[in-house]
Amino acid sequence: MSWIPCLKKDVRSYWTIRARPVITVRSPIRADEVRLGGQHVLFVEGRDENSLDPKILRTFLPDELRIRPLGPSFSVRSVAQALHKHHPTYYFLIDRDHHDDEFVDRCWQKFPDPETDNLLVWRRREIENYFLDASYLCCSEFCRTSESELSESIVQYARKRVYLDVANQVIISLREELKRNWVSLFRDVSGFSTKENALAKLRKANEFDRHRTNVSRLLSFDEIENRFLKFVDIMTGGQRRIVSGEGKWLHFIRGKKALNQVVHSSHFRVRNLTGTDKLNVMIGGLLDENIDHIPRDFINLRDIMQAMVNTTI
Fold first, then answer.
1. Which of 32, 72, 145, 291 is a Cys-bridge partner for 149, taking CB atoms 3.0 to 4.6 Å apart?
2. In sequence order, what DSSP letters do the residues of the chain get, joined into one string?
């Protein structure tokens, strides 16, 4: 693969426990606070420079590309909407969350696209989902079990939380639909000369009736149940139960939670390290030493970002 020689040889410096001091990044950052000149910058989710997302991305993205964490996805999207028109070399990457296949595919196929704010969305729910692969995790020097045992454990962890994640996905999808801009503001001052005229305008706005009807439909038990069963089918591939190789549960399970359970199980042993330190060393080692197993979306992202950087070289 042509991109392999560009991998940083000092990748472990990003994962060392005694890391060098870094600049603290406040989260969330307001759009008017971001001033990075004409540099190519990828804004991602993450509390600060030590968050997992920027650490992972720095191991395989071009050196010329700066990576800046901006907090949760809504912060990244807010900055994207505010800045992409004025800073064409600013790019934005967020977790999948509620976005559907059509929107995600369009982001990747048409990037950079001002209609989507120069935004990329992971095809899997979170960056951690890309590591929920027994064949990949078994490449870790810290793995103390077989691939089949590890695969079965991942399935068991997923089964324990699948319905929690499905129920939360229903909530997320409803919350996103209900907060959409469903009514336009008035623009013409001529119809608002008195209090009575203004109230009459509000009463005649049929958007209120439509929205009440829409809210009633979305929050009905039938609609909630239909969404729940739809997400269950997506997760399980119609099996109504998590089975290895069936459905998209590896893509849409809450990756951060599941990966933490797997890494902190007896399947992996990192001497004298626990918690976040153990996770960082494990993931860093996988990215550094097992390049043949790097997820395809990581390769695609690297190629896209390299093309962006090359446009101004």
1. 145
2. -TTGGGS-TTGGGGT-SSPPP-----SSPPGGG---TT--EEEE-BSSTTSHHHHHHHTTS-TTSEEEE-BSHHHHHHHHHHHTTT-TTEEEEE--TT--HHHHHHHHHH-S-GGGTTEEE-SSSSGGGGG--HHHHTTSTTB-S-HHHHHHHHHHHHHHHHHHHHHHHHHHHHHHHHTS--SPPP--GGG-SSHHHHHHHHHH-THHHHHHHHHHHHTSHHHHHHHHHHHHHHHHTTSSS--TTSTTHHHHS-HHHHHHHHHTSTTB--TT--HHHHHHHHHHHHHHH-GGG--HHHHHHHHHHHHHHHTT-
Supply φ then ψ for residue 68, to 5 degrees. -125, 125
Write out the two tokens for 52: 């997992």
Instruction: Give 126-158 pLDDT, tens digit per residue.
Output: 999 999 999 999 999 999 999 999 999 999 999
Alpha-carbon distance of 246 to 232, in angstroms, equals 12
Q: Are 77 and 92 in contact (CB under 8 A)?
A: yes
C-alpha distance from residue 76 to each of 81, 120, 300 (Å): 9, 11, 21
Tokens of 209: 């009736």
Q: pLDDT digits over 244-277, tens only?
A: 999 999 999 999 999 999 999 999 998 888 888 8
pLDDT over threshold 90, residue 26: no
Q: Which residues contact 219 (CB under 8 A, 6 or more apart)?
A: 174
